[in-house]
Input
Amino acid sequence: MPSQWSFLIDLAYLNPTLNIQPHLEFTLNKIIDGGIYDQIGGGFSRYSVDEFWHVPHFEKMLYDNGQLLSLYAKAYKMSSNERYASVIDETIQWLIREMLDDSGGFYAALDADSEGEEGKFYVWTYDEMKEVAGEHTALIAAYYDIQEKGNWESTNIPRMLHSEDDIATQFGLELVTLQSIITQFKQRALLKRAERIRPGLDNKIISGWNGLTLTGILEAYQATGKTTYLTLAKRNYDFILKNLLKDGTLIHVANLSTQGFAEDYAAIIQALIKYYETTFDEEALRVADDLTLQMNEQYYDPQEKLFYFTSIHAENLIARKNDLFDNVIPSSNSMMAENLLKLGLHLDNEPYKKQALDMVNQVGAMMAQETSYLSQWASVATLLVKPIPEIVIFGDDYQEVTTALNALHIPRKVVAASAIESDLPLLQYKTEINGKTAIYVCYNKTCKLPVTDLDVALTQISSE
Output
């Protein structure tokens, strides 16, 4: 449930005195040390069946990996831990290699089984590993806990029980030398593994899961600045607009006519907002607003002040349900509460902001008692505790400034930017300063004096 750890990142930022970060990083490190993370090929399995994150249910789901990209990208912004950047990169390379359709959409899942056995594609005998590792067999065995009798059911799920520093010391190597050996081993192991019979692929392209993944890739680009991630994100964004919107209506699965569920709308709107705040393509905000209007017209329950899971145009059910609890995917309502708040700020739409507040108030008492299952709601609540900085960059160098800004760990913000006049409310009446790109830090539509230096702007944010 990645939204739990994402909430802790948001809470740690809001209240540093709680000393959350060391505990959070401990957990994030243990997850990527374990077998739940594919040490050879990148990407995460569905869940672990033990408390050590060692033995996974080997199924790989798109929605997990999209959210975990977001999580580790946020953690990288927070900690600058290069291991997180490596995991992000390996996971994105796995998405490109195994989950990306030629059209730019991402497939839904990879099965756990191959040849009738769960995990067979991913596990290694000692001899199989030795064939690939060659002269470095002892080192690789120590690094990945590869045992002659196996670390799970007579075979091995690669995992890391010791730090790279400890392994380097044990084998008398410089850290950079060890890392080079490991990189070369993984490349050879990946090629060897590709000779095996692959798990089955669920090639449905589900709109909501693509939305979660687009958000993750954009967050990864913001954190690392790798332009290949942005290229991938633009490709998926174009796919969504061309293939998942039919006459302006969001569909659930590409090439089928079923209208999207609230979860699809919420995740796509979330991704569109993130896309705007990364690329500053105003089309993304316009589409996000159009889809939000559809949500309010077709899914909203004014009595409960929450969204139903299905549209008024969907087939009649015995009862229309609203999706409230954050589970392996955050609830459509908690995602929409954040979307409404951020769109309200971007578009100066007071009804959206009030709607978001009303939604959070609906679950406030429950959130205090069951934070674990309302963790995305809790993240939205961190945005409501005090005014959110509206950071506006105007001028020819806006891309350079926003790239530097987005790489920083500032979970509480909305960002708008342009080099030319815009109809967007946050950008109106903004100008350069003596020909230099200006940075405005605003709260509740009131801006501090504009500056041209990002570091000075950051002091205006932290002083609040």
In short: The first helix runs from residue 2 to 14. The CA atoms of residues 330 and 376 lie 6 Å apart. DSSP finds 17 helices and 15 strands in the chain.
